[in-house]
TrEMBL record:
Family: Belongs to the asaB hydroxylase/desaturase family.
Listed InterPro entries: AsaB-like (IPR044053)
Name this polypeptide is given: GA4 desaturase
Region (Disordered): 151-171
One Gene Ontology MF term: oxidoreductase activity
Length: 376
């Protein structure tokens, strides 16, 4: 399939350098049905994203602190944009900690997770944050990366290199709760995802609660019970989970908390303002996902539905120019409180790493994602 290379007519965004910043983003061609990836956790192959667009990126600077976020006019907010960005240094940003500290699961558990939980409660007003995974990206992009063999899964995937079984210690880390993904030194870190996507559709979000990890399912027990009761009555969750006619269950949302470990010089993360999305832009795709934490050690997987997209004039992409480690993105993946009014993605918005001309020779981006369930 040949690539369509198009420059958007969206007005150019001028930054402090007085030069517009254009990023390369790849969409699924309109009407095309992409073939799912054979690799665990992976989106379809890059060849499926053959509608190549060179689009203006809106710089989100300056970034407010967490305490100033709500009053920050004209700044991206979760409720309107589907994402937000704040300046939020953590314990690990100060001595005696350094870059290597961010790759130490014990230090992340002791310091970073509590710091992030506190931040999320302040931003969202939720009562509980359940951390389900931390994902380290530290490699240049490749079609199949360390995600494919995470926790010993995917050993049957063709490879030029042997794929040894993980040690008991590594397996415990990779199948625990939260799961640490991309921290296996023998497999290397995960690579960027240069494919606009929403990790979970509403259906995929609900599958995720029930299938990803037993401890996540346990934490979401009240949510699942309320949803299952509505489904048993033949009621639509979108229309009834948060309605005046039904008590429903607690509001819940899935978020990805994304921050670089060093200043970003290539493959920055770009996010699409969800107000510029339409239902017809989305293309559903199944993503094969391991079922982690099974007592029998089984290599069972499940299909989690996510969204890709085709291009439409008016899409507005946002980024943080030369994003620093103290600057963090909070990315909405799903919000049950927005499902009735929020359209098909229900609080989730497209995001992707984006290519910048002239940055190809820079060292690989390093970033950490904390993925979590928030409950109100």
């Amino acid at each position: 399939m040949s690539s369509t290379i198009t420059t958007s007519t969206t007005p150019q965004i001028t930054l402090s350098s007085s030069e517009p910043v254009i990023g390369t983003l790849r969409y699924i061609p309109a009407g095309h049905v992409p073939e799912k990836s054979p690799h665990n956790y992976h989106l379809p192959a890059i060849s499926e994203f053959s509608d190549v667009r060179h689009l203006s990126l809106r710089n989100m600077r300056p970034l407010p602190s967490v305490s100033d976020l709500a009053a920050a006019e004209n700044h991206a907010q979760l409720a309107t944009h589907g994402f937000t960005a704040v300046t939020h240094p953590t314990t690990l940003h100060f001595p005696p900690f350094n870059l290597s500290s961010w790759k130490d699961p014990s230090l992340l558990t002791e310091h970073y997770i509590p710091d992030t939980v506190a931040m999320l409660k302040r931003i969202t007003g939720c009562s509980a944050v359940i951390t389900e995974a931390l994902l380290l990206r530290s490699a240049l992009w490749t079609e199949s990366d360390a995600l494919a063999t995470h926790a010993g899964h995917g050993r049957d995937i063709e490879s030029d290199e042997p794929q040894p079984d993980p040690s008991a210690e590594t397996l415990s880390l990779e199948t625990g709760f939260p799961a640490f993904i991309g921290f296996n030194a023998s497999q290397g870190g995960v690579s960027p995802a240069p494919k606009p996507h929403v990790d979970y559709s509403p259906t995929g979000s609900r599958t995720h609660l029930r299938k990803y990890h037993p401890e996540l399912t346990m934490a979401a027990a009240a949510i699942i019970a309320a949803e299952d009761a509505l489904l048993a009555e033949g009621k639509s969750l979108k229309e009834n989970y948060h309605s005046a006619d039904s008590p429903g269950g607690p509001r819940w949302a899935l978020y990805s908390i994304w921050r670089p470990l060093k200043p970003v010089r290539r493959d920055p993360l770009a996010l699409l303002d969800q107000r510029t999305l339409r239902d017809e832009d989305f293309i559903s795709v199944n993503i094969t996902t391991p079922c982690l934490g099974r007592e029998d050690g089984s290599m069972e997987t499940h299909e989690a539905e996510g969204y890709l997209a085709s291009y439409r004039e008016g899409h507005e992409w946002n980024w943080i120019e030369d994003q620093k480690p103290e600057e963090v993105l909070v990315i909405g993946l799903f919000d049950s409180g927005m499902e009735r009014e929020g359209g098909i993605a229900s609080g989730g918005t497209l995001h992707s790493s984006v290519e910048l001309a002239g940055r190809e020779g820079e060292e690989a981006r390093e970033s950490l994602e904390l993925r979590c369930l928030c409950v109100w």
